[in-house]
Every structure is written in C-alpha cells, then in structure tokens.
Amino acid sequence: MKMKNRVQDFAKYVSLNVMGMIGLSCYILADTFFVSKGLGTDGLTALNLAIPIYSFIHGSGLMIGMGGGTRYSIQKSQKDSAAANRTFTHALYLAAVFAVFFVAVGLLFAGDIVWIFGARENVFNMSRTYLRVILSFAPAFLLNNVLLCFVRNDGAPQLSMAAMIGGSLSNVVLDWVFIFPCGMGIFGAAFATGLAPIISMLILSPHFIRKHNKFHPVKCRPQARQAGWILSSGVPSLVTEVSSGVVMIVFNSIIMNLNGNVGVAAYGVIANLSLVIIAIYTGIAQGIQPLMSRSFGLKDYDAIRAFLRYAILTMAVFSICIYMIVFFGASPITSIFNSEHDAMLQAIAVDGLRLYFIACPFAGFNIILSIYFTSTQRPLPAHIISLLRGFIVIIPMAFLLSVIAQIHGVWCAFPATEFVVEVIGLLLFRRYSTGNSR
Questions:
Q1: CA–CA separation, 330 and 334 (whole Å)
Q2: Can you say whether the dihedral through the CA atoms of 212, 218, 224, 226 is positive or negative?
C-alpha cells in the first residue's frame, strides 16, 4: 500500500468515525441539555446519577462489536468467509445474552441501583424512571453497536457514520418533542434516547436489503472458545466505556459528600462534555481498527505503524484545539446547562472544566494505543492499559486527591491518572509493539 493510499484510507475511516462517534455521544448530551432546561438542577442530578449504567450498556455493545469486528476483518482479509460468518453469529449470541441480563436488571433492580448511587426523594423517582427505560432498550443499543462495527469492517464506513449521526439527530429532535410539547419529563428524555438506536438500525438496513453485506448469521452451536476470542479482543473497548461510568459513580459519591446535589449537577456538565470528547478519541481509534486489522491479516507491518503515527498526530491536534476551547469557553459552556443560573454550580463547573480536561492528550493516547494492541491481536497490553485507567489507578487517585485538595483534587484525579497510564503504556509499547516478540 502506497503512502498516498494509506493517508486517504486513514482520512476516510477516521473522519467518518469521529463524526459518527460525536453524533453517538450526543445521545446523552442532548438529554443533559433538555433535562437541564425542562427539569432544572434536580433533573440534572437525577440524570447524572442514572447515566453511568448507560456506559455499561454501550460498553458491552462495543466490546462485542469491536471484538467481533476485529476478528471478522482479519478473517475477511484472509479469505476465510466461513469463519467470518461464525464470528458474526457468535457476536449475535453474546448480544442476546447481555440484552437479557440488562433488561432483567432494569425490571428488578432499577430502584435499588439509584438508591445506592445516592438518589433520594424527587431525584430518586426521576433517576429510577430514566434507568428503567434505558435498560428496557438495552437489546436495541447492543444490536446497534454490533451492526455498526460489522458494517464498518465490511467496507461501508460512510453508512455506519450516517446511522450513528441519524440516530443521534433523531434523539435531539425527540428529546425536545417529548420533554416540552408532550410534557413527558424524564421519561420522555429516556424514551427518546431508547428510540435512537432503532432509527440507527433502520438507516443501516439498506446494506442488508440490497445484499451488500459480506457477513450473515449461520447455523452453528455456541462455542465458548469463539465467544472468548470476541470478548478478549473487545474488553479494552468495554473498559474504555465502563470506566466512564465507574468514574462517574465514584466522583458522584465523593462530590455528594463535598458539595451536595449542586456539586453533582456541576459534575454532570463536565462528565457529559467528557463523553463527547472521549468519543472523538474513540472515533479515531475505531477508524484505524479496520485498517490495522486488515494490514495485520496481510502481515503489512509498515502500514500498521504508519496508521498508528497518523492517529497519534491527529489526536494531538484535536487535544490542543479541545483544551483551548474548554479553557476559554468554560463559563459559557457551563451557562448552557445552568438554566437556574446557580452561582455555586457555575463556579464549581468552570473550575472543574479547566482542570479535568488537562487529561485530553493523555487520554487520547491511551485509547489509541489500546486499540492498536487489540487490532493486532495483542490483548494483554490492551487489557492492562484499559484496567489501569478505568479502575486500578483512577479510583484510589480520586479518593487520595479529594482528601488533599477537596473538589479541586477530584478534578485533577482524571488527568493525573491518564498521565500515569500513558507512561506505563509507552513501556508496554516498547515491549509488545508489532514486530517484537510476544
């Protein structure tokens, strides 16, 4: 593959996936905006307490989709259609199992979960409603993520992007319709979000109706080994998403003790903007995944290294631009979500935005490096990076820095964690990069 073709392929896949992931992340951002306008600080607090579970659903879908899509792309490049179809079938089996689990949790334990997360009184009722509706739509979220990843790896990144953006735009429109003209409150916000993946799959449907798809389900018994391969390759994507939910749970608990509901509402502004920014880095990573997996199947290691360089350079440029916007625009960004003009919320969120997003270049590097390892079938270092940034470092860092510097320590926990993990990631790259011994 010549350099010009590599750059063109990179630009095509990454730009489409970044736009698509930004659109996908706007599911929750739209909820945040309209709930803040329609239901005030209590509504924003209720939403922020329930949102972490969405990260678990979305992360599970990405784990299955990215893991299955990676194996599918490698098998497709090696002309093994039978194995590729078995991989897709097992991805559907896994999606069904996770869907049953999430729906059952929503029906049986939604109230218990939001109580544990700290919701009380009116906030409790709104959080429980939002969570129960979102979990009821888990089958749609999971199947949509699987299909998006396979269609992207099937050579149709444009359609995958169109589906992600189309679903998100429908969510924005339906949020407004259900919350304001229809007066459906927090239920309307959750219902709009749940319909979005269904609309996304309708946009994907021509790929199957016109028989452009090179994959389809086949009759085969579920095999633990096949499922294990998919899950192993997809775990870093799960941890990347789930870590957002875990961080929100931990931060909500700490902030509730430090600043109460207003502090949690302020963190809601930061956390939801973070979903969009992390989506940009995830879009870059997902964009290079099909290219790297295909190159790995063809043993074109020069192309793999080239795509990694392009991704890191692109991430660095995005990081500089993002932080400049956040630093200088912190006050107007917060004002958009501060419908009650709460001075305390405004002050906490502005400080938080400027400290929290120092993490941008470190987080972007870690996400891209994790996908690099996954795409080249080196799951161990990818798992290490994902677990360090998602659980092992961030949680004790948050508690430690909150004791040392109160709320400012909470905001600094995220950049401190991502920096530490980047240093470890560089050491892992030297040990496990393509071409070195495993």
A1: 6
A2: negative
Structure tokens at 79: 């002309």
Query: Would you give the end-to-end CA distance of the chain in angstroms?
Result: 26
Model pTM? 0.75
Query: Average pLDDT over the chain, rounded to whole?
Result: 87
If we measure between CA atoms, which residue out of 347, 329, 354, 362 comes closest to residue 265?
347
Give the tens place of pLDDT for each residue, 20-36: 777 766 666 666 778 87
Q: What angle do CA 413, 414, 416 make, to 5 degrees?
A: 65
CA neighbor of 31 nearest in space, from 43, 20, 22 = 43
Which tens digit of pLDDT belongs to each residue from 55-71? Answer: 889 889 989 998 898 88
- pLDDT tens by residue, 238-287: 877 777 777 778 888 899 888 888 888 888 888 878 878 888 998 899 88
Other CB atoms closer than 10 Å to residue 119's CB: what's the count? 25
Per the structure block, which two tokens stand in for 356?
């929290």
Regions in the chain scoring below 50 on pLDDT: 1, 437-438
The strand pairing partners of 436, in sequence order, are 434
> H helices within 78-156, ranges in order?
81-116, 121-136, 138-153
Contact 142, 64 (CB under 8 A): yes
Read out DSSP for 381-433? HHHHHHHIIIIITHHHHHHHHHHHHHHHHHHHHHHHHHHHHHHHHHHHHHHHS
Q: pLDDT by residue (tens digit) across 312-340?
A: 999 999 999 999 999 999 999 888 877 77
Buried b / exposed e along 383-405 (16+ C-beta atoms within 10 A): bbbbbbbbbebbbebbbebbeee
